[in-house]
Amino acid sequence: MLIPSNLLKNKKILLGVTGSIAVYKSLDLVRLFVKAGADVRVVMSQSAKKFVTTLSFETLTSNKVLDDTNESWADDNNHIKITEWADIFVIAPATANTIAKIANAIADNMLLQCALAYPNKKLLAPSANTNMIENPITKANLKMLAIANYEIVDTQTKELACKVVGNGAMAEPMNIFWATSRILLRDEFWNDRMVMVTGGGTIEKIDDVRFISNFSSGKMASTLATALYCKGADVNLIATKFDEDLPSDIHTIDVEDSSEMMEYLVDSIRIAKKGKLSKPSLMGSEQIQLIAKKPYLFMAAAVSDYIPEFVQNGKMKKDTLGDKFKLSLKKNIDILDSVNKDGIVTVGFKAEIDKANAISNASNMLRDKKLDGVCLNILENSKSFGTDTNEIEFINEKEVQKIPNNDKLSVAFEILNYSKSL
Known about the structure:
By secondary structure, this protein is α/β, with parallel strands linked by helices. The chain folds into two domains: 12-184, Flavin prenyltransferase-like (Rossmann fold, 3-Layer(aba) Sandwich); 187-419, Rossmann fold (3-Layer(aba) Sandwich), CATH 3.40.50. The protein contains 14 helices and 21 strands. The strands form six sheets. Strands 12-11-8-15-18-19-20-21 form an eight-stranded mixed sheet, with helices on both faces. The two termini are 28 Å apart.
């Protein structure tokens, strides 16, 4: 997925790094932040400097690193001014020792002083040996921090530095990047709103080894789901293909054919229409009920118009079929036209090669399928599929609004802006 260079423009990120072997991944995290346009400053513990030098972070950020040796009250290189400067404080990696000290308000080094001084949302990415991260005291500390204005990016299971395979490895930099972006870009309109997105070309079986499909890559759906995730939505992505850089927290359902997509979409709509969300109470494990916002559906999937009338078991042999093979097709169900759209805002996607009649055809789709909006994509040819850029005509009953050619994630954010008024 192509990340826009202005995604985090004017955002100020304070990154804390502690003494874990995973600190080398923090360099990649800094690169992601900087490439997305953020201004990044780093505060290091003395233990972290055993693994990576301050020069490495200063080179990548073009900013001086704050540590225990160089705090200054003559400028803003101190634990008060730097935390007043930051829009978010990210600690990655956070060792079990650092987690324990933060949970008990201990501030015996510069990084911990910053953590205690920073009043806003903080993001913490733990990194520790399996026994240390699974220790009941560490688990209790993480639960304490989760109700104290910290968001936790879960560890992963893999081979650790101690050569043991187990839980405790720091989350991948890309996942920490997306979690940070979600906090910085959260939008009250989309926050906690249930949204369904479909994507990719459906795969309709002829037999057990052959199928008919189309050129749809699913990239637009993945970027749309990512934009919704960054805005705080509760996203359910139902697709045949997924982008490899998709935020790991997005709920995904991998389907193949149109009937499977229809089944999961109907189920998702049913859940979305219940009208309530359950969220943990700040007081503990009990749940509180929130009245849900009106759900949205973005139907970006390219569903096959026709499917094989008879699916064969096994593999058909060409010796049996002969010199000519006639494949009997039947008209497929129109998922977007068939699902119950009452109570949800629905945006369809339409790909057209006929430039002269594209807007007229999309407007007919808007009317005939009773949609709230249509994203029209005018293609040159089959090579237009799978690219990292797109150009959209956003159509509703009142107007046609052009979204100029740009990377697909930027286009997705524009689609969300126009969709808010539907």
